[in-house]
Amino acid sequence: MRRIAVFPGSFDPFTIGHEGIVKRALVLFDEIIIAVGANALKKNYYSLETRKKMIAATFRDEPRITVDHYEGLTVDYCRKKGAGYLLRGLRTAADFEFERAIAQINRTIMPDVETVFLLTVPEHTSVNSTIVRDIIRSGGDASRFVPAVININDYKGEDL
Ligand code: ADP
C-alpha cells in the first residue's frame, strides 16, 4: 500500500520552513501532495496559480511530490486522493494548540487519516508566511526565506 500524504496550507508564499518539512517527510512517505487550500473567502497576496507555480518550481526535480489545490474539507480531499496521512509542521506551542484541535476533529470525522507532525528545525522557527509577505510588500529582500530556486521577484502579488 503506497503511503500518500497531503501537506495542506495557504503557502502565501511557500517558505523555507514549508520546504524543510516536505523534504524531511520524503523519507516517511512514498508520495506527497502539496495541496493549496483555495478558500474563496480568504484574500491571499499571491494568486492560487502563482502559489502553485512557486511550489512546483521548488520541487521540479522530485517526481514523488505533486502540487494541487482543493476546496472544502481537507479530510474530504485526502479521501478523494486516497491519502492516509495529513502532514503538518510545528514551530511553537501556539502552533501545537491550534493543530491539536484540528487534528483531533479531523480524526473524529475521518479516523483512517492520520495526522503526522514534524517539528521544524530551530533556524526555521521564526519563518512564517505573514512576515515574509510583509517584507515583500514593503520592498524588502525576502530571498533568504523562500526556497533557493525561487526568484521571488519573478512572482507578482496582488494588492489587497
Ligand atoms: P495554514 O493556513 O494551513 O496554516 P500555512 O501555509 O501557514 O497554512 O502553513 C502550512 C503548514 O506549514 C502548517 O502545518 C504550518 O504549521 C507549517 N509551517 C509554516 N511555517 C513553517 C515553518 N517555518 N517551519 C515548519 N512548519 C511550518
How are the secondary structure elements laid out?
Layout: E1 4-9, H1 16-25, E2 31-37, H2 48-58, E3 65-70, H3 74-81, E4 85-90, H4 93-109, E5 114-119, H5 129-137
Parallel strand pairs: 1-2, 1-4, 2-3, 4-5
The protein binds adenosine-5'-diphosphate (ADP).
The site of adenosine-5'-diphosphate (ADP) has 17 residues, from strand 1, helix 1 and strand 4.
State the share of residues found in helices, binned by percent: 25-40%
Q: Note the gap between the termini.
A: 44 Å
- Radius of gyration in whole Å, from Cα? 15 Å
Tell me the name of the CATH class.
Answer: Alpha Beta
The total strand number stands at 5
Strand order, main sheet: write it out: 3-2-1-4-5
Q: Averaging pLDDT over every residue, what do you get?
A: 96
Gross morphology is: globular
Bound molecules: adenosine-5'-diphosphate
CATH superfamily membership: HUPs
Can you characterise this structure?
The protein has 160 residues and is of the alpha/beta class. The chain has 5 helices and 5 strands, in the order βαβαβαβαβα. The protein has helices at 16-25, 48-58, 74-81, 93-109, 129-137; strands at 4-9, 31-37, 65-70, 85-90, 114-119. α1 links the parallel β1 (4-9) and β2 (31-37). The chain starts with a strand and ends in a 23-residue tail after the last helix. The model has no long low-confidence stretch (mean pLDDT 96). Bound molecules: adenosine-5'-diphosphate. Adenosine-5'-diphosphate binds next to β1, α1 and β4.
